[in-house]
Amino acid sequence: MRKLIVILISASVFSVIFGITLSEYILSSGQPSYELTTSTNSIVGGKLFILDMKSQIWRGIEWNHKVVIYVPKKLLYKSEAILFVSGSAPKNIIGEANKYLGIAELVGAPLIILFDIPNQPLFGLREDALIAYTFAKYFETQEEDWPLLLPMVKSVISTMDCTQDFLKSQGIKIEKFLVTGASKRGWTTYLTGAVDNRVLGIVPIVYDNLNMREQMKKQLEYYGTFSEQIRDYTKYGFTEMVAKSEEVPELVKLVDPYYYEINVPKLIIAGTNDPYWVIDSSELYFYDLSEPKYVRFIPNDVHNLKNTMEVFSAIRTFFILCVERKLPDFSWEMLDDGVKIVTHDEVEYVKGWYATSESLDFRKSKWESVDLEFHNQDGIITSFFSKSFINSINTNIAMLVEVGIVKGDYVLTLTTIPKVYKKAK
Fold first, then answer.
1. At residue 30, what are phi and psi to the nearest 5 degrees?
2. Which SUPFAM superfamilies does UniProt cross-reference here (predicted)?
3. How many CB atoms lie within 10 A of CB 331?
4. What number is the average pLDDT over the span 49-78?
5. What is the mean pLDDT of residues 203-218?
6. Looking at the domain 329-425, which fold is it?
């Protein structure tokens, strides 16, 4: 295995100017190719295909992927598909794919699973360690195609190209994709939504790190150090330099979705106890995102979300509402005395969630629920925590409101972003 050489990033290299954009890399990195390797009937009656795809050649390395395409038995949506961006392909690909087939059958839309994002191991590294290494190599060499997010996004674009071509041979003409992925794949999902007009909507999962420079500053404020979960970036000095830089580094502008205009519908899913970020990370970017935008925080869940059924249900419902253009009307206002939510849609329920902590570190805090009353006045539903409730808890408190929005036959569970109320000194 190649020995890793730690490259500490100095302040001077942040002045390097990028000569490439994400869109330019996608256009300049070649055309993808694929071949069909498996065609079979699934355990639930639909048709399952597996493609071997080459998405590109990145820095002399051929990127290869397994791509699963599933066409449900009852196909209701023939122009739109759901695209899951996933990590390394397992040995039993069909067994893994079977976990996803239920959502395709319930929706009635083609489902695609792109594996091997990123291709790994490379340089003896995987996941965050690999991404951080490519950032460091960029600063060391000033070669502009090093950042790994470039080929990661290109791989998703290539998958849309190849699946459109293949499904056309099956008599299905896909025009739009709902793209979703978790962690680094959620990061990739955001960027894909910024650069390809075939994206119907995005569901980035557990990537609560937009506006990276301010995020790093807030980690220092809340934790006194950077999260151990992002230690691969800290090892190269990247997190410290981003936090302390007077201007936003060009690399951050290239890979941080905060600096892109992402105009497609967005449903952000995260866990309240994700140890990668601070509890109110979303406060640093959510309000700056373009509409339509929604968020779903799952209380007492972590980075590897355990409640996968809720996640799949949210993706299914969001896909249908995007296709049918029936997205909910939902907003909120953070007040000094609590959180107020407003919607003109039918509401099934409203629930408050709160957690307490003597410090600003809520990673191990237990979230408790409380039923909230809501009122309908002139078609506007309002509900909020009261100031007396907040004052009754003599410590730091984080809270959010969960709402079940009724849209026809479907209920989409949404939340506000978490709000921290600091203990009075």
1. 90, 170
2. alpha/beta-Hydrolases
3. 14
4. 98
5. 98
6. Immunoglobulin-like (2.60.40)
